[in-house]
User: Fold this.
Amino acid sequence: MIMAERIHLYDTTLRDGAQTQGVDFSVSDKIAIARDLDALGIDYVEGGWPGANPTDDAFFADPPDLANARFTAFGMTRRPGRSAANDPGLAGLIGAKCDAVCMVGKTWDFHVDVALNIPREENLELIAESIALIRERKGEALFDAEHFFDGYKANPDYALSCLTAAYAAGARWIVLCDTNGGSLPDEVERIVRAVAESIPGGNLGIHTHNDTENAVANSLAAVRAGARMIQGTLNGLGERCGNANLVSLIPTLMLKMGFETGITADGLRRLTQVSRGLDERLNRAPNRHAPYVGESAFAHKGGLHVSAVEKDPTSYEHVDPARLGNRRTIVVSDQAGRSNLLARFREIGIEIDARDERIGDLVDLVKRREYDGYAYDGAEASFELLARRALGEVPEFFRLQSFRVIDERRWNAKDELVTLSEATIKLDVGSQSLMTVAEGNGPVNALDIALRKALLPAYPLLEGLRLVDYKVRILTPNDGTKAVTRVMIESTDGHGERWSTVGVSANVIDASYNALHDSISYRLFRAGGATAHDRR
Assistant:
C-alpha cells in the first residue's frame, strides 16, 4: 500500500488571529482555543510572542498541556549590534515554556538596506546565529522568511541566501511568507518550485495572507510545488483581510488531494464544532456561507436540486457533510416543492405520509407567506414551528394580550442627551394573567426583557436565552416610513445551539415581537415545554 504524503499544519490563530480588528483574546480564551486545536490534531500551536504584552506573558508562564501539538513561541532574530547570547528578545524565547520557537527575519534586500540599515551579509549572520542558538537551547527552530515573495522577485539570489543561512544553521522549517498578501497562485507555485531545488520540500512551509482572496489557493499552490507545511488560522482570522483559512485547507488537503495530516477521521468530524466554537467565543455569528462548515455549505433550495440530492447526494454535494461534522439542510422557500418539505420533515423528525394532503396545503402556505415578505430559507426555527403548528404539534406556551413600547429622548439634569425605552406587556401563561414592565437599550431590547421577565417563573430554562443577531430589511422601500419590514433574529441557548426566526409587519416593533415569539416558542418546544414545576 502506498502511504499518502504528510502535510504538517501550523496554527497562528493565537498571534495572527489576535491582530484581527475587534478580536482581543484573554488568557482563558487562548487556553481554550489551544486545547481545541490540540484535540483537532494540529501539529503546531503558536501561542504568541513572549514579552510582547501582558496577556502573552501570562499565557506562556503557565501554558496548557497539549497531547498532540508542539506548543510554539514566536519572536524575531537577534538585533544588529548584539550577539545572539546577549539579545534580550532571544533570551525571552529561550526562557519561554514551549517546545519550539519560530523566528521572523528579513529576506527582502530592500528591508535590510532601509529598515535594518545594515550590510546584507550581516543580516545573514543575524539569521544563522539566531537559529543556531534556538536550536541548541530549545531543540527546534523555525524560520519565517518575512516578505519572501517580494524579496525573491526583487533579488532572488539574496532572498535564497537568507533561506540557506537558516537551513544550514539547523532550522527545521523554512517558512515562505507572502506577508502583504499580494502574490498570485502561479507566482507562488513557480517560486516555491525554484526554492525546492535548494531546500528540500520536507523543510519548506508556506504562510499566506488573504489580501487578494488567494490565501488558500496560494497555500495549495505551494503544496503542489513541494512545500510540506502550511501556516494558517481558524476561520481565516488575521490582520487586514486575514490569513489562510485552515478550516478550508484541512478538508481540501485530506479529502480532495489525498494528503495525510495529523488530523484523524474522528478529528475531521470535529472541524465544524471547532470553527463555530471560535465564533461563539468571539461573540459573533458564524459565516453561514463558509466552505465545508457553514450552515449553507450543504443547503439545497430548489425543488429539482432536492429531488436529485434525495436520489444521489453526490450529484450536488462534493463531499459528505457528516465527514466534517456538518449536515445537509433542505431549505424551504417559495421555490420549494413537495420534495423539499418531505426532506425537511425527515431532517427535523416529522413523520408524515408523502401523500398527506396537508403537505400541499403547507407548500401553498409557505409560498403565500414568502410573498408577504417572510423568508424561511434563513429562519429554520420559524419554519419548523410553522410546519408543526399546521400538524397540531406545538402547544400555545403563552398568549399575548397586548404590549406597549415607549421611547423617550431627553436631556437629563447633567445636560446629557439620553434615550430610554420602556416596554409594558400583558400575557397569559396557563391560567395566570401577567403584566410586566422593563426598560432596555432600545425598544426591542425592552420588549425582550419584559417578555422573559413574565415567562421566567413558569419557564426558568429561558434564563440562558439571548439574542446574538438582529437584522431589519425594508421590503417596500417606496413606501418610505410606512414600509413593510422583515426582522430576522438569531438566538442562542448559551450552550452552542443557535436558531433563527423571522417576523414581518408594517410596524418594526410588531415584526420584532413576531420573531421574538417564535424564538422563545422554539426554545420551549425543543426543551419539551418544561415549566418551573417539572424541569429546571
Summary: Residues 299-390 form one domain. Confidence is low (pLDDT under 50) at residues 531-536. The chain has three domains: 8-281, 299-390, 399-526. The chain has 18 helices and 16 strands.
